[in-house]
Design a protein that fits this description.
The structure is a homodimer of 295-residue chains. Chain A is built from twelve helices and ten strands. With 295 residues, chain A is an alpha/beta fold. The first copy, chain A, folds into two domains: 100 residues, ATPase, nucleotide binding domain (Nucleotidyltransferase, domain 5, 2-Layer Sandwich); 174 residues, ATPase, nucleotide binding domain (Nucleotidyltransferase, domain 5), CATH 3.30.420. In chain A, strands 8-7-6-9-10 form a five-stranded mixed β-sheet, with helices on both faces. Chain A has a three-stranded antiparallel β-sheet with strand order 2-3-4, with helices on one face. In chain A, β6 and β7 form a beta hairpin. In chain A, α1 runs parallel beside α2 and α5 packs across α7. Chain A starts with 5 loop residues before the first helix and ends with a helix. Chains A and B meet through α8 of A and α8 of B.
Chain lengths: 295, 295
């Protein structure tokens, strides 16, 4: 399945794969959950806007529901990851939780007073677009200086590419590892830093400073009891969790600085798990079926 | 009543004034609400930390309750102002609301899904301590580059004082208006800008840029349907509301950018009104007394 296939191609593939899984499920399926990197209308299952898929107003939920004959719940991927951590992972049983997801972008979602924070258009928790550097680097969104433009995977890659292209920069292992400037990713930078490449080390240190600024902002604004940090970047650079903890402890307001900071339990599969949990919670099923599904 | 009187002096004065008011009330009082610029434990009425009063762990609620023989609810001032706007003002009947208070500091509070967002230690919504300028000006809190260090009344005053003290700055109406550098306030800067003083105009324009950055952050993070902007600074510079609206419209994520931006209905009295509404809502009263109070 590829974004270039457009909504029809993606939905066809998705339905085909789901049918294979549903043919021999371990328990009778009661609902289908879909996590998608998009602004979603949870009530209707509409994908309102998915910048990376180039989708606008695609009725993903209804189309999959019709094809599979099962109720479908569509949920934003960062929100789904938060549900996974909240229900089953590092945020289990916590009524005031923020889950910060550091991946290609920076996302997040809050649980406050035992409830998931949705917001007016289901976009609350999009802390990747907090301004961290007034007038700073352009973001993929209409703002400048966003958290994600410095700490997201694409932001790290872009900063590294610019540094390598700068004629004043001495040759760096970043470029030799990547092969070409365009192929530099956050991963290349972390690996080169592990090998002691000075430019990579500097870039990682800068990224840690921006992460610290962002973590302080998130904890001051949402006042969670627990901050859970997950996403692909944390897998590549686990020190991010300790950096965030140190910043929260020393730079947050005294009332907020007591938040515990933990790595997420789930990795790439967090959105899948959260989407499934969410779909089951939101779907009314007969007591018999639920009993059977829980055995 | 003055902060220098310490908790005992302040509480004595507060109780004396309350007794005068309670002697001849328009309706029988059922409860007392107190708004205070502090971190508060709403369950116990404890003032945990009030930086400007230099209070730590003062049992304000219980002491006033004992003296007056009435139930007392203590609430943070920005939260009280939000309650006033939400129940009776510019945020009336709105289930997803953020109220941003621009005063000496920058405070705020959110209503999400029809509920006030409290947070783990009742400090959620403290957006004055979002990092807006990574590594920027020191704040009164342990962080640097906070929203409030640029846009709060004290931040504006401090920036103006530094600019005036700089030997490279030509003489400015800011200083001549204030009499001395130490007496410069945000008000002096606004007044001098209204008179066209170039330094004051520059400072106000910079403040507007930082406010725009902060408003974008708040709306992206909390995704309110309505952003209400109040506090003493808005009275002094009403253009702040239009500046925030323009920024939200043009720089927020598409899903969040539809938020309406409105000036607060209430001025300085907002925390008082909100504290009273809050106390009434949180106090169980007999149906007869409530009926009488509502007449």
């Amino acid at each position: 399945m590829h974004a270039n296939d457009g909504p029809d191609g993606v939905i066809d593939t998705l339905v085909r794969v789901a049918r294979v899984v549903l043919e021999a499920p371990p328990v009778p399926p009661v609902a289908v959950g879909i996590a998608v990197a998009a602004q979603v209308d949870p009530a209707t299952g509409l994908v309102v806007h998915a910048p990376n898929l180039h989708w606008q107003n695609v009725p993903l939920g209804p189309r999959v529901a019709e094809a599979l004959g099962l109720p479908v719940q569509v949920v934003n991927d960062a929100r789904a990851a938060t549900i996974a951590e909240w229900r089953l992972g590092a945020g289990r049983d916590e009524s005031d939780l923020f889950c910060l997801i550091l991946g290609t972008g920076v996302g997040g979602s809050a649980v406050v007073g035992g409830r998931l924070v949705e917001g007016a258009t289901s976009a609350a928790g999009e802390v990747g677009h907090l301004t961290l550097v007034s007038g700073g680097r352009p973001c993929h969104c209409p703002n400048r200086g966003c958290f994600e433009a410095y700490v997201g995977g694409w932001g790290i890659a872009e900063r590294a590419q610019e540094a390598v292209r700068d004629p004043a920069t001495p040759p760096s292992a970043i470029q030799s590892r990547a092969g070409s400037v365009k192929k530099i990713t956050a991963r290349t930078v972390f690996d080169a830093a592990d090998d002691g490449d000075p430019l990579a080390v500097r870039l990682v240190e800068e990224t840690e400073r921006y992460l610290a600024d962002g973590a302080v902002s998130v904890v001051n604004a949402f006042n969670p009891r627990r901050l859970v940090i997950g996403g692909g970047l944390v897998a590549g650079h686990p020190r991010f969790v300790a950096v965030a903890e140190q910043a929260v402890r020393s730079r947050c307001q005294p009332s907020a600085a007591t938040a515990s900071v933990l790595p997420a339990r789930f990795g790439e599969e967090a959105p899948l798990i959260g989407a499934a949990v969410h779909a089951r919670e939101r779907t009314t099923v007969s007591p018999e079926l639920r009993q059977s599904a829980e055995r």
